[in-house]
Write a structure and sequence with these properties.
The complex is a heterodimer.
Chain A (H helix, E strand, L loop, with lengths): L10 E3 L2 E2 L3 H9 L7 E8 L2 E6 L2 E5 L1 H4 L2 E2 L1
Antiparallel strand pairs in A: 1-3, 2-6, 3-4, 4-5
Chain B lengths: L2 E7 L5 H9 L3 E5 L6 E6 L6 E5 L11 H13 L3 E7 L3 H11 L6 E6 L1 H6 L3 E2 L1 H8 L2 E4 L8 H14 L11 H14 L8 H9 L3 H4 L9 H11 L3 H20 E2 L8 H9 L5 H35 L1 E2 L7 E2 L2 H11 L4 H19 L2 H17 L1 H14 L8 H7 L3 H7 L6 H11 L8 H11 L6 H21 L12 E4 L7 H35 E4 L2 E4 L9 H9 L11 H9 L6 H9 L13 H7 L2 H13 L4 H11 L2 H30 L5 H18 L13 H6 L1
Helix pairs in contact in B: 3-11, 5-11, 7-8, 13-16, 14-15, 15-23, 16-23, 18-19, 19-20, 19-29, 20-30, 21-27, 21-28, 22-28, 23-29, 24-25, 25-26, 28-30, 29-30, 30-31
The chains are: A alpha+beta, B alpha/beta.
GO molecular function (chain B): ferrous iron transmembrane transporter activity; GTP binding; metal ion binding
InterPro entries (chain B): Fe2_transport_prot-B, Fe2_transport_prot_B_C, FeoB_Cyto, FeoB_GTPase, G_FEOB_dom, Gate_dom, P-loop_NTPase, Small_GTP-bd
GO cellular component, one term (chain B): plasma membrane
Amino acid sequence: MPLSMVKAGEPNVIKKVGGKSETKKFLENLGFVVGGLVTVISEINGSLIVNVKDSRVAIGKDMANKILV
Amino acid sequence: MSVKIALAGNPNCGKTTLFNALTGSNQFVGNWPGVTVEKKEGKLKGHKDVVIMDLPGIYSLSPYTLEEVVARNYLIGERPDAIINIVDGTNIERNLYLSTQIMELGIPVIMAINMMDLLEKSGEKIDIAKLGKDLGCEVVEISALKGTGIKKAAEKAVALAQSKKSAEVVHSFDKKVEDAIDAVKVMLGSQVPEEQKRFFAIKLLERDDKIVEQLNTVPDVSNEIKALEDAFDDDTESIITNERYVYISSVVADSCKKNGAKKLTTSDKIDRIVTNRWLALPIFAVVMFIVYYVSVSTVGDWATTWANDGVFGDGWHLFGIKSLFIPSVPSIVEGALNAVGCADWLSGLILDGIVAGVGAVLGFVPQMLVLFIFLAFLESCGYMARVAFIMDRIFRKFGLSGKSFIPMLIGTGCGVPGVMASRTIENDRDRKMTIMTTTFIPCGAKLPIIALIAGALFNGAWWVAPSAYFVGIAAIICSGIILKKTKMFAGEPAPFVMELPAYHMPTVSNVLRSMWERAWSFIKKAGTIILLSTIILWFLMNFGWVDGNFGMLEAEQLNDSILATIGNVIAPIFAPLGWGDWKMAVAAVTGLIAKENVVGTFGILFGFAEVAEDGSEFWGQLANSLPAVAAYSFLVFNLLCAPCFAAMGAIKREMNNIKWFFFAIGYQCLLAYVVGLCIYQVGTLITAGTFGIGTVVAFVLIIGFIYLLFRPYKESNTLNVNVKSVAKAK
């Protein structure tokens, strides 16, 4: 399911990173790689703050929909 | 022999703190050629011949952001003698991702693990010796904030640089990937030095089109790419990214002891509250209110009053003690000029022109210092990144980014620091849009104009001042929507992805340094462009033809000045806006120096040498000379048109491109003219029933405006960073 629907606080394994190749690449550079863990810290209207590889990353709703866990 | 050492690392890893600690005050701040990415260079303390280069914070050496391209062009093209790679120890996996790429460049690398103190607190351990052996480079522990270990790191880097050894890559990927890299390395032949071959080979496999520009002959690697993609069922970039992370995981597992049970960090707990769905906006509003209130209303206002009325006005008392009177700058200068028997015209130029003009601008400096301290604090403690996140969804709707809010808020005080604050917006398109629209918000200097029009023509009606802010906000929103549909802005919206640094207490020296960097750039502006423009305007206002003789004029003879002549020429342009009188035109022109000049110019034009800030002496005369609708159109024009010279200078500096500067100024003036015209024409139709060509034009413009606002438009999703010019400028 897309990351935007995940419950806060639970670690999830990333299954797929979608989107345009530039965006995808940027996310991968930030640590969003298949097999990695991602935890949602907080959520405002679908936009998320997540923990990935020990750093906090804020992602917009449209982007959060393209990361599958 | 001079040695060049580059600092490279992720954003928020403590790179700037380390740079400041290593170089002290020995810094040179500029821009990388052709872009607004900041370039910082400094000399290592105690080593005159060691130059430290602070590269922009980056996550990788891919070509997707301007910062990455700038950093990587520097590393490939200029080849520093050594690199200090700063790694945030609390976030080691993600930081090592960049490290593996830096090590492929063939430049000797020292790895400095930062935030070791934080790491120890949380009970985590990194085996430095093991990590260094696994990565093939020397690793040192530092705390940039506390200054521990940094000297050792710098000395090791210098020794390494002088040894002239090139680094060797010890990490390796999957066998199939390594085979492909080796095959491409052979194809590269002799055009790339041996130690750089791995970097170029990987970039070619990743289909990095920017690397092609660096090569004379580009080998055809499509077979290797296809073989890899078939074998791994993914694109080559992702394959290599994955290989890097797989390798890093093995290294980290080997040398780092992590805390098993992950608790929420303090930073996360703060985020739970500060970015909470319900509390985020109220907390944000309170923070902004405090910043605004303190820097504009209380401390800032006190400081500005001191600077304007004391230092550049009637003098002031040191510490408020009556006996310690310090005369104002103008009176000191006047005394000095009288003492040497200076010619009238020259003392006029120096006092009324230069001292008054530049002084009016410098008067804003104390207020700006207060604002900049707040900003530097909010930025370095980590809250600013959250603001961008909170505001992004709202601002995105009209083509701006969440970060645009900060410049606009500051713009209510003064447009110059407002425009300069747009620098924190990384996305080029969002930043340009913000620069163009920030000055629509009425700044402190526009308030006297509002007070004048409200008092003289609307009997001080309560709604005039709020309507000015409303016009400003509406102009920003409409401009955002219209501009994002134009070709110039289309095609570059980046989805919102942003790292949030952990909250931490910034050091006093870093906050002060950041404040001073901003303030200094403003002061420099006052000394150059503003100085020049005040001299020219003073000349235009004080010289003219009286009875056929050219010469200097008395204050009452402003009607004969060159400025009045120019005013008479340009006045008809403003006739459709309802204020075709040359005096109004001249007042608007003097507003370009500083907006508060508008009221003062009116005063002189109506025969008063000195007037109150809101010009109450000539309210009656002004009310008789033009109808209320025309006055409102005059007000709106002055609010929206090109800002003062100081702010225009800031726009030019931040746009860093003359074409964009003129586009911004032109757009502002055009919008101001169109809105002013519509207000006057529609206003007279309603109040007086006048119908003419102007009314028709106004309605056509309104329809056109509505069309631009609502025309269909498809948002493009491609990210297009134009970096060719960067590569060429090198």
